Amino acid sequence: MLQAVLADPSLQRFGEYELSEIKDMTVDEAVVSNNHTIHAVGVIIERINENASMREVYNEVSEYLKNNI
Amino acid sequence: MLITSVTIRNFLCYYGENTFLLADGLTLLIGDNGDGKTTFFDALKWLLNTQNTRARLDLFSAMRKKELAIGESDVLSVSMAFEHNGEKSVEKSFKITRTGKGPDDFSVSEFSYIGKETVGTDRIKRPGDELINRCYDAFMQKFSMFQGESQLDVLNDETSFKRLIEEFSNLKDFETFVSYTEDFSKKSFRALKQERENDSKTAAEAKRIGGEIKNAEDKAAQFRSDVKRYSDSAQQYKKRLDSLEKNQESSEKLRDVNSRIDNLRKKLSMHKDLRYSVNLNTSLLDKMWILCAFPDILSDFQKKCADYDQQERLVEKEWIKKKTAERVKKETLAEIKAITHHGELRWDIPDRQTMEQMIEAKRCWVCGHPAPVGSDEYNYMVQRLEEYKKKISPIEPESQKEESCFENSFVPELHTMSIRMDGLEAQAVSRKSSDITERLELEVKLDGIIVDLEKQIEELDAERSRIVTQSNGQSEDTLEKNFNDYMGFNKLYKQALDNLHDAEDDLKRETDKLADLKKQLAELPGTGMVEVYNRVNQCFEKIFNAFKGAKEANLTQFLADLETVANAYLDKLNLEDFHGVVHLRQSVNSNGEVVAAIELRSEDGSIVHHPSGSQETTMYMSVLFAISELTTKERKENYPLFFDAPTSTFDSTKIESFYNVVDSLDKQCIITTKDFVLPNGDLNEKALDKLTCRVYRLKKDAGFARGALETIKTTVTVRKN
Prior knowledge:
Chain A contains six helices and no strands.
């Protein structure tokens, strides 16, 4: 799923990353990525898989982006 | 999920305990009609039905019930052992006890529905319904247990098929992510808007754009609601049309047949009127029937008259000749006698005038003697004058008659009559006789036409019955109504589509406007946190769109793979026969969800609207097999497939292909069938030897009485392991 989402051309342009960077990338790797877009997607996937609530995930990712974007 | 065994005890024709060990591939249960194939299926369905938790005496083996003495008991049970994340089993059972001598004198007790599962090293009891709902719920049963071919069309139900795809693709997972990220995108936009409105430099402009955004959102919501409404209507009309279309052909045929019957009935009525108008009353027959033979009789009569006339003329000619000869002879003799007679003058000497003068003068001037009145001389002169007069007077009819050859002139009269009758009179009589003949012939002709028309109506009536019988249980009135409904719904459907397109255009326009306004809001000059919120919102929006796109791409890819694999199966199942191409059509339903429907198409892309029974069956089976193959590859949960008599519309080639395909499937399949049973009751061993599957033979025990249910018992034997 991670690759399918990150492969989106528009997201790729916005996040300024290359396809080669995300090839074979795992969710764990995405979560520790320095690229804020890749990181945000990784956290969303990880936290939803952990059954975190919508508010929790939003706050977490939103705070991260506000501080890093 | 893998079913390892099924045990049936005292369930209908399954007397005592019968265990089926099922292969992880194909298991065939072969039996003829009434040998217990469908009962096997029914027993499984009864076991797996979590809603049915009551004992039913009518399910108990009649043979076993008959054997039980008063006070004796026995148990009916159906159980299944299976692998599904560990070993599990489920059993449904109840006990009956005979309470009297009557056929239904039993008490029913101890109903139980128990599941068991192995957890670690422990065997733990579970409620049967809970275990089945967890491992093999009604939805999965619906898509894996097929009784006959007609049940396969569950795949054509849009919602069910969507759920099936969700079950076996990652679609369901994506939906949660899409829903979450959509919410994040909205939240971040609200935060951005708030931040803009709080920024003194852009507050006024942000509020204006914000107001317009609000308006655009309201309008978009309204148009979205319109789209949903019109889409719902269009789908409902389409569903109704599809349903009507199934019978539309029958409706049209019925309408055509009815119209032809009406026309024929009108013709029949007209011909019957004509038939009854043929005047065959007694008067006609009494007065005229005798005239029928008139022309023949007249002809015969004329011929006879002519013959008689000819004969008579010949006879008369002879007679005249003879008489003439006699008269000449007589006259000659008289003349000779007169000449030779002494003192006797010829009758014409003296002549009449002289004679009358002599009588008047009362003197004979021949001899010179006086002849006073009354004297002999006077009397002699008077006599001579009378003789003279007689001689010269015309021939009296009587004397003529006397002299005629025939006393009566019947023959000439008849001949004259026959000639006279041959003219206009004969024609008039002939017309009357031919009128009778024509009327009789017309009657026969009309009778023939009436019989023919009645036969045609009878055939059309039978055709009408056939159409009604073959129209999925629709009555004739319903079919007639369907035809009119179809026209009406078609109009409504087109109208709903037009409205939908208009609403979609409006929605797109408003959505574009909304995007433009959001862009304007995003592009407002801002500093510090406004710009941060702007970037955060853009990021969330991009992430939402990426998840949405990935979900759609995932579905598209899954359907494309499914389509490819399904078509490969379709090809295998239809060797040397037209089978078309399975197409999985994607569409968006009224809830905005992407759904898919199965269609059979020709290679040029046109839809095969009325596939045959076997084409439809193989199409659905191909999709089922393809789902199974793809899910096995992706290590999703696999489910067995049950088919009861799945090949009833198949020809022998297709049957062979079908078993070859299912035999090679990497999937558990249990099929009950009468294929492979030869007309003499033996199994087609040669055909079975080609398969690698496990085979059970189901057979009614010999010696059953045809009218007694309690004598029916199915014997189960393993034919092939």
